[in-house]
Design brief:
Blueprint (H helix, E strand, L loop, with lengths): L2 H13 L22 H14 L5 E7 L1 E2 L11 E2 L6 H18 L6 E9 L7 H12 L3 E12 L6 H9 L4 E7 L3 H7 L5 H14 L3 E8 L6 H14 L3 E6 L21 H17 L3 E4 L2 E3 L4 H7 L4 E3 L2 E3 L6 E4 L4 E3 L3 E5 L3 H9 L5 E6 L2 H16 L1 E3 L7 H13 L3 E4 L2 E4 L7 H6 L3 H5 L12
Parallel strand pairs: 1-4, 1-13, 2-3, 4-5, 5-6, 6-7, 7-8
Antiparallel strand pairs: 8-10, 9-10, 11-12, 14-15, 15-16, 17-19, 18-19
Helix pairs in contact: 3-4, 3-11, 4-5, 5-7, 8-9
């Protein structure tokens, strides 16, 4: 073992602890629900809407239905083969969107982003997706530079799905591939062939989609360096514009489907990091740029341009090429972000329908950010998107933060020059750990209960 490998192994042993992915701050387990109310949330939404009208708003729509359970999945899903659920759910979504439009007090919103997530959005029949999007767009203006995107399962995405959504203004799609290896696919119950993915790609390109993302995961059961290399090489043949190469989050206490396999089936620690480093090396060799934690993009793609121009943003949907202070999430379990506050919807379809039918916003919990939260949120966002943080010289938390960073400095993960904290090349593999040093709510409310997946 080389000195470099030995050093990395020691770092993995030290820092491979449960850590948030920081799609928000505070992270959901540390929301202060005691000081949250739906009325306070509605006020926050309205104020942010008025203050940021020139930027438009983002809309996330959660479509939870899947015909089968992917055992690796950490999303909120409902498994069914009954497609009669589609129309009632769409009607509920449109009613919820109507409730939010009422919050705007007659002001017509401008939509800058729409993202269909799930679940499996392509579970829905194309004509029903058309009904949904036309219903959303009926009472809004659409920003000239809008970005509409959707997630798709390659095994059930038809040319009609692609054409209908393209005609409605969608230009980006994200294909959930995870891994091409048959054994890995069997373990995670996620089957799609290379040929199926290729067919969707060719259809999407011919129709006119401008940016196609591949979701790949490292750390899955039975993955090896050979299988990861094969998956990356096959992906490169199809030339996606973006690649999300995520770390598998093993949280069987939250997602019982992950008990389909055991800990012994999973690559761990340095073995898991080696899979990431191999995949990253192969991706970069094909001309992609590393734009943030687990994300890569071609240098002509808008996500890379946002990174280069230092306008990259991160929210509950991951990295984004724009910042809209108001993100409204509709549907089961969706999370909304009004910059100064968060709210999450109820997590079961039955409760969601019941509340919508009663004319009640289906919010179950949330958090209103205080002054300290807002400062820390900016720090963590800058570290995740820019790899550096400029501490406010007037802030009282700076010495506490620098104290938390001492061991990271000693281990070569960050450098500190005055009030500037920079992530190093080594630190990029431990970005979640670095952000934890800023996370005041996590540090003050440490618990023995495991709330997050491991950092590596």
């Amino acid at each position: 073992m080389s000195i470099q490998d030995s050093t990395m192994e020691k770092l993995v042993q030290k820092y491979n602890v449960a850590a948030p992915r920081y799609t928000s701050y505070p992270t959901v387990p540390f929301w202060d629900e005691k000081t949250f109310s739906t009325d306070a949330w509605v006020d926050q939404v309205y104020n942010t809407f008025i203050q940021s009208k020139d930027k438009g708003l983002s809309l996330y729509i959660h479509l939870p239905f899947c015909e089968s359970l992917c055992t690796y999945c950490g999303c909120n899903t409902r498994i069914t083969k009954n497609h009669q659920v589609e129309r009632p759910y769409i009607e509920a979504l449109l009613k919820e969107w109507g409730m939010y439009r009422a919050v705007f007090k007659g002001e017509r919103p401008t939509v800058a982003e729409i993202h269909l997530g799930g679940g499996t959005p392509t579970f829905f029949q194309p004509e029903n997706l058309k009904l949904l999007i036309e219903g959303i767009l009926e009472h809004v203006d659409v920003a000239a530079d809008h970005s509409f995107s959707f997630e798709a399962h390659p095994a059930n995405t038809t040319t009609e799905h692609l054409q209908v959504l393209f005609d409605l203004g969608f230009r980006r799609l994200s294909l959930g591939i995870q891994d091409f290896d048959p054994l890995v696919q069997f373990m995670i119950n996620r089957q799609q062939t290379f040929e199926e993915v290729e067919a969707v790609m060719l259809n999407a390109r011919e129709i006119g989609f401008e940016s196609i993302n591949f979701d790949l995961i490292y750390g899955l059961p039975k993955q090896t360096q050979d299988s990861v290399q094969d998956t990356i090489e096959k992906s490169m043949l199809l030339k996606p514009d973006r690649i999300s190469f995520y770390s598998y989050a093993h949280v069987p206490w939250l997602k019982p489907g992950q008990r389909h396999y055991t800990e012994a089936d999973l690559p761990k620690g340095t073995a898991k990091l080696a899979l990431y480093n191999l995949g990253k090396k192969l991706i970069l060799a094909q001309g992609y740029a590393d734009i943030g934690m687990d994300h890569f993009a071609k240098k002509e793609d808008e996500l890379y341009l946002a990174f280069r121009e230092r306008r990259l943003h991160r929210n509950f949907m991951g990295y984004a090429d724009r910042f809209t202070p108001l993100l409204i999430g509709i549907g089961v379990s969706s999370i909304s972000d009004a910059w100064g506050g968060f709210a999450q919807n109820v997590k079961t379809v039955e409760e969601y329908h019941k509340l919508i039918a009663s004319g009640v916003l289906p919010v179950v919990k949330g958090h209103i950010l205080n002054t300290e939260d807002l400062a820390i949120r900016r720090y963590i966002l800058d570290m995740m998107c820019k790899g550096e943080v400029r501490l406010d010289p007037t802030a009282c938390l700076n010495e506490e933060i620098k104290g938390e960073l001492v061991s990271l400095v000693q281990d070569g993960m960050v450098s500190i020059e005055g009030d500037l904290v920079r992530c190093t090349a080594i630190g990029r593999s431990f970005l979640r750990n670095i952000c934890m040093a800023f996370d005041q709510r996590f540090l003050k409310l440490r618990t023995e209960k495991q709330l997050f997946s491991e950092a590596i």
